[in-house]
Records
---
Amino acid sequence: EQSQTVQVNLGTLPAPVISANGPTAICPNSGVTLSAQNYVSSLPSGYTIVWRQNGNLISGANQPTYTATAAGTYTATVTSGNCTVTSNTITVTITNGPSVSVSPTAGNVCG
């Protein structure tokens, strides 16, 4: 009976590190761009990236940047072959901003 030694080299798939290009508390009808920093300049051949909001796959979000326009917790997942790694999380919230109250004053408004 013979045996052979097989050497297996396991590469490391770097986890994406995501950050926001601005405040993550955004106004309604606006957004904040999230970036997988270590993949923004180029996504290596054979790698794929997808974004998730609250754990749910975002349809069509397969680039190293994604503009979040809704509240939620966002992650990016990179896959190469059978290896998959997921990023840190970023939470985006919707804020209504300050409220403004306008009241007329007594007197002639037109001057």
---
Amino acid sequence: AMFAPRVAEAAAAGDPAAREILEAAAAELAEAAQSVIRRLDLSGRPYDIVLSVGTFAAVPALAEAVASLLRAPFATVRLLTDEPATGAVQLAMEQLDEPLTAETGAAWIR
């Protein structure tokens, strides 16, 4: 992952080996996601696919390639904009039937 931005730069500059590396990485990541989609039997109803790994933010070409491979009639592919911990806190607050607000969020951080 730490070399991903360099590989992306080389691919953008036309390096065929770098392009092949990015294409293979995108195919593997998309296949892993498709495996989860099949196991959860999500076909036929709307679902989100959230690209949450920092590499997607660092290498937009990889995010675009994976998103392209995962496009489906009911799928919405998007890049995670919040820290993953924020989602964990939000889920915990929902379980407690308390809305996540600036005040309750600040209380969790203390």
